[in-house]
Amino acid sequence: MNEKNPYQILFEEIRLGPVVAPNRFYQVPHCTGMGYGSPNTLAAMREMKAEGGWGVVCTEYCSIHPTSDDSPLPHASLWDKGDIRAQALMVDKVHRHGSLAGVQLWHGGSTSSNLYSREVPIGPSSRPAEGDDPVQSRAMDKRDIRQLRDWHIAAARRAVEADFDLVYVYATHGYMLSHFLSPANRRSDEYGGSLENRVRLVREILEDTKQAVGDRCAIALRLACDSGMVDAEPESAEEREIISLLGELPDLWDINIRDYSYEMGSSRFVREAALEDYVSYVKKMTGKPVVGVGRFTSPDTMLRQIRDGVLDLIGCARPSIADPFLPKKIREGRLDDIRECIGCNICYGNNSRSIPLACTQNPTMGEEWRRGWHPESIPPRASDRKILIVGGGPAGLEAARALGERGHEVALAEKASELGGRVRGESRLPGLAEWARVRDWRIGQIAKLDHVMVYLESEVDEEQVREFAPDAVVVATGARWRRDGIGRYHEEAIEGWQSASILTPDDLMAGIECEGPALVYDDDRYYMGGLLAEKLARAGIPVTLVTPSALVSPWTQNTDEQARIHRRLLDVGVQIETNTVLEVLAGERATVACAFSGRERFIEAPTIVMVTSRQPQDALYHRLADSFETTRIGDCLAPGTIAASIHSGHRFAREMDADESEEVAFRRERPTLEG
Ligand code: ADP
Ligand code: SF4
Questions:
Q1: Rounded distance, CA 127 to CA 527, Å?
Q2: pLDDT of residue 543 exceeding 80
Q3: Which residue blocks in 500-613 are alpha helix, DSSP H?
Q4: What pairing do the DSSP bridges indicate for beta strands 100-106 and 614-616?
Q5: Which of 561, 500, 494 is nearest to 534 (CA)?
Q6: pLDDT for 464 beyond 60
Q7: Sequence-ordered list of residues with C-beta below 8 angstroms from that of 399, at least 6 positions apart, any chain
Q8: β-pairing, 580-586 with 166-170?
Q9: What's the distance, CA 506 to chain centroid?
């Protein structure tokens, strides 16, 4: 590395007990939605992080025994020899790049419903499982506690067999060991009641694990260092005590906070390095290295955290998903090339839906094995075709960038005076500023490609395409929000919509003034309805948010934002009407009805903000399709998330001129057939 690299300190080796991390970049354990059923997918994804320079690459939560089963959420496991082989595949690939591999051994305790294994959940006391499953655990007796320790020891030994370098004792995130540590653990034996008693099991498991792994692996303890929701001014007196009791026992402290919606909060609610105030005391209490997270994408922030003695290792989950090559880029001084996470939590959303990770910024995430995609390389072009891309939103920008990387001559025409499409407007909505990174990173990359030309204020019609005479046209003209109310609930336009004063999200983002009071009708059910209600209320407009759903912005449960959104709307004074359908519009009067009983009432609202569904802007595509080789991508093909548009643009660029003889475009993991 260049001796003058100002970030050199980030590339220092760090001793973790018996092993040495090659640098301070640490991919903390994170969910993947892949789990033990997808060993190839996982191994290839984790390898990419190691190749990209992460000094330590960890698994997701890895179950030690069938009594810890989080199905239908996918998780890793180390139950038996088959699991050892699967984990070894990942470890081997990580080692190839000189990185350390860590495993987060996990027991879910009363939190896991064990729906797949059908084992009765166990915990320090009998309590209901997380979520709404009608499942309750049984209280562990002393024999169960001994057995739990044995399972942990056996799993740690399997981890050694799989050649891991780092083994976790996982005592946070509301699983088994958190329940033992909790003040709510009022067991009458030596494992409950006093703090010393509640810490006992963690201490024993730390010592057991040390015995099991000897000098082969480092031991990390993952712990929350505060005691409540951040919004309620958490205390940390007891956690300080726990850390002082266990201070030098682990080889590494992996520190987080209790409020998961803040620890991995979206950028709408939580800024980079936001955990600093909560975690910075830990390093003063132990001589052992400390790793923590904070959606770090700025090398300067990372540097400051190390220099100020907040952390020893820069822990990242999302930044390593958005850019598996982040460390390498810092090392090579290519800071402009860092593809910064935007904090949208789509990645987590996929895990919540039990499907493999995807990422808004990194379309290759989850595609490393099944499609063979690499985030930093793309095959060179297979033809000399000149390509015209119409529309400079996420899909058009990504297609232009990726085709340009392949060496194609590309013209990108955008009718507006700025690139970005939907991101242009959405990144100006409250809290979404970081979403502009989707556009800005691509603009920066395209600027480095001489053979990609960008034309702004260039609305393209059929005539211009004829004049330009491209070999292929890509239509990425996006979608517009509907005005008529058709969406999930209404298959037909809402009665009277033409008589009402209706604004769409496009209108509001274009700066059209809204006359209050406003009724925001959200049948889209992701972030837009709630966000516009917030924006209008902040501007002093009385707002009623009406939604047929039982929750405000329900899909954001997947991104762990829903509770924060609801609270925010209450804070800014939005009137919330859930389970309510917008039935008829008559001038300034809206008839709404209970979604269950049909009971009607009226709401006076001069303005209706209609957030229901979008209409693809595909007229140009249909006009061109017969005369040119034309493809539509992104929202023009089918309105979706920004992540879907980026993926669509990227996929087009990868697959152009590809051999299409394969029946399915991607490989699937297959269980081994018996016999
Ligand atoms: P996507 O997410 O699929 O990229 P967006 O709606 O974000 O879709 O972006 C579409 C972009 O296409 C917008 O910036 C819009 O201004 C642009 N656009 C739409 N029609 C034309 C056209 N005929 N010529 C050039 N640009 C267009
Ligand atoms: Fe970041 Fe969004 Fe990618 Fe997750 S999906 S890593 S939050 S950009």
A1: 33
A2: yes
A3: 505-509, 528-538, 562-571
A4: unpaired
A5: 561
A6: yes
A7: 389, 474, 476, 633, 649, 650, 652, 653
A8: unpaired
A9: 26
Q: Which atom of ligand 2 is nearest to the CA of 346?
A: 5
Three-state secondary structure call for residue 177: helix
Measured from the alpha carbon of residue 438, the closest ligand is: 2
Q: 593-603: per-residue pLDDT in tens?
A: 999 999 999 99
Torsion sign (Cα): 245, 251, 256, 260: negative
226/491 Cα distance (integer angstroms): 48
CA of 458 to the centre of ligand 1 (A): 11
CA of 166 to the centre of ligand 1 (A): 48
With tokens 């709307």, the residue in question is: 569
Q: Is the pLDDT of residue 274 over 90?
A: yes
pLDDT at residue 233 above 80?
no
The set of residues, in sequence order, having a beta carbon less than 8 Å from that of 237 and lying 6+ positions away, is 227
Two tokens at 657?
């001129």
| CA-based end-to-end distance of the chain | 53
Task: Give the residue from 302, 337, 342 showing the smallest Cα distance to 322.
Answer: 342
What does pTM read for this prediction?
Answer: 0.97
Strand, coil or helix: 111? helix
Q: What is the pLDDT of residue 658?
A: 83
What does the alpha-carbon distance between residue 226 and residue 237 come to, in Å, rounded to a whole number? 8
361, 346 Cβ separation under 8 angstroms: no
Return the active site residues: 175
Residues 6+ apart with CB under 8 A from 632: 474, 475, 476, 477, 616, 618, 621
111 lines ligand 1 (CB under 6 A): no
Q: Which helix (H) or strand (E) holds 49?
A: helix 39-51
Label the pairing between strands 630-632 and 502-503: unpaired
In a 3-state reduction of DSSP, which class is residue 545?
strand
CA 566 to chain centre: 20
User: Phi/psi of residue 498, each to 5°?
Assistant: -70, -20
The ligand that comes nearest to the alpha carbon of residue 457 is 1
Nearest Cα to Cα of residue 574 among 563, 583, 565: 565
Q: For 551, which DSSP code?
A: S
How far apart are the C-alpha atoms of 322 and 309, rounded to whole Å? 26
Whether 459 lines ligand 1, by a CB cut-off of 6 Å, is yes
Stated length of the chain: 675
Q: Which atom of ligand 1 is nearest to the CA of 637?
A: 3
As a whole number, mean pLDDT of residues 518-530 equals 98
Distances (CA, A) of 208 to 171, 221, 249, 652: 15, 13, 11, 52
Q: Decide if 581 contacts 548 (C-beta within 8 A).
A: yes
Reported as a pLDDT band with limits 50, 70 and 90, residue 287 is very high
Q: Name the residue among 316, 271, 262 with its Cα closest to residue 293.
A: 316
Pocket lining for ligand 2, CB < 6 angstroms: 318, 321-322, 341-347, 359-361
Whether ligand 1 lies within 6 angstroms of the CB of 620 is answered as yes
The CA-atom distances, in angstroms, between 276 and each of 54, 176, 310, 328, 632 are 21, 26, 7, 25, 45
Query: How do residues 117-130 score in pLDDT, each as one tens digit?
Result: 999 999 999 999 98
- State what percent of residues in the chain have pLDDT above 90: 94
